[in-house]
Amino acid sequence: MTRPTAPELDRRSVLARRAEVQDLTSPARRATDVRVLGVGLQDTPRGSGLAGVRARTAQPAAEVGRLLDGGPLVLAMTVRGAPHVLDRAGLGLVTAALVPFQEAEAEEVAAVAAAMRAVADGRPVSRPELSGALNDRVPDALRSWCERCGAVHVREELFRKATLHAGLELDPNESSPVVFRPITGAAGAGHEPAGARTELVRRFVHLLGVTRPDELAAWLGYRPGEARPLWDLVADELQPVQVEGRRRWALASDLDALRGAAGFEGVRLLPPSDPYLLGDRALVVPDRARQRLVWRAVANPGVVLADGEIAGLWRHRTTGRRLTVAVTPFAPLASSRRAGVREEAERVAALRGADRVELTFDS
Asked: Which residues contact 121 (CB under 8 A, 6 or more apart)?
């Protein structure tokens, strides 16, 4: 069988389209209109999810910071059991999409979720209390010894995945210990898993522009072969393409936009684990030495997106009402781009409740 023709796409045009679709080129007027909220923005470390929303909206940063606590945004453990910020109104679809499609795993998640609902009983509950109370409510096969805790409890990944299906979100104001509370509304209500999975995979491909089955698997936390049934849900909507000599796939409906996207101009400070960084690392950051700086084993930095390229790293520290932002450019930044970094740092400060910014540029 002859393989379908794969047209060549320009890397910069693909990334320009990614920035456009992810509301980085022209920020959304309201934070709730940010499109990546449909798949979620990972909140690792805490605060990263809202920081990613802030980078994509013209809404004042201080207002964005108030949207999570009982507002239109929600913090919950979703993809891979990791905490993500999402649109509360769309959480039902994501919940249905993340019902495990493998029967054995689905049964385990359902058992733990049922026990969690019984423990929480409609009230906020700390993670230690929830974890401890589950031990007498779930089969031994679902528990294991935890070296870090020095105790036996529900397996970590299983625990994390089950919270969403138990109807529990994270309290954004509590982190030590983590506190879960009932999600407003019925999680998963009105959505059939197969259709929800199809939509979630479609959104993932659209927001990245081009991708591959193994990248979808990595995002969802599956081994490459395990995620193939999910990829196949949208297979008839996909067009093979070539980017930088590598075969990838795009939604056929996105092909013209991927060819003709205008270059992104300006500066954004993106947090660690931002959706812009998903997928093939070599596509986003071609230099391998720089890849190792962006994606570390632990404690990833934020990145400076300037004129369509990852131009450096940034970290921050809050002391009282002062935010200190340290930027490490990969190459000297023009004065206009340094000014853009300062504007972004001031918005980050407003999001985090700081009224003073100390900005440094490291060589």
From this structure: none
* Nearest by Cα to 131 from 76, 180, 170: 180
If residue 73 lies in a helix (H) or strand (E), which one and from where to where? strand 73-77
Q: Give 268-309 as a 3 state SS string.
A: EEECCCCHHHCCCHHHHCCCHHHHHHHCCCCCCCEEEEECCE
Residue 194 to residue 196: CA distance in whole angstroms: 5
What's the pLDDT score for residue 4? Answer: 61
What the block records as the tokens of 226 is 């395990």
| Tens digit of each residue's pLDDT (9 = 90 or more) over 133-161 | 999 999 999 999 888 888 889 999 999 99
| Secondary structure (3-state) at 8 | strand
What pTM value is reported for the model? 0.95
Q: Which two tokens stand for residue 197?
A: 């999975």
The answer to whether residues 11 and 283 touch, using CB atoms and an 8 Å cutoff, is: yes
Q: Which of 101, 71, 110, 64 is nearest to 87 (CA)?
A: 71
Task: Compute the distance between CA of residue 304 and CA of residue 308 in angstroms, rounded to an integer.
Answer: 10
Q: Give 288: exposed, middle or buried? Use CB within 10 Å, 0-12, 13-18, 19+.
A: exposed
Task: Determine if the peptide bond prior to 301 is cis (ω within 30°).
Answer: no
Sheet bearing 302-306, strands edge to edge: 267-270, 302-306, 309-319, 322-329, 356-361
Report which DSSP code applies to 91. H
Give per-residue burial for 138-164: e unless 16+ CB within 10 Å, then b: beeebbeeeeeeeeebbbeebbbbbbb
Q: How far apart are the first and last CA of the chain?
A: 54
